[in-house]
Amino acid sequence: MPRTGTGSSAEGVVAGAPRRWLGLEGLVLLAGALTAFGALGQPWWIVPAAILAPDIAMTGYWQADRLVMALALIWLAHIGLDRLLGTGLKYNDRFAHTHLGDRPDAR
To answer: Would the pTM count as exceeding 0.70?
Structure first.
């Protein structure tokens, strides 16, 4: 039954126990990812330098800045060029092995 009245819960917003479970899930994910990162033996300065990178990348949603939009369009053009040339997401075994197949001409 939908809520009515002047309650603080907006429609479609998770509240109560499910919200607490989602918070716990976030804590477990954060702790697990940082534990796995530590096992890789990489320098810890990378974490604060990169942990906000996805949020910074979303600044195009937060403001209608023409430069941010232009950079996003260039990024999309780069993806299009990669696909046109038959390159793509690289597998870790060799550079020429991509999600679009093997590129025998790549060295």
So the answer is: no
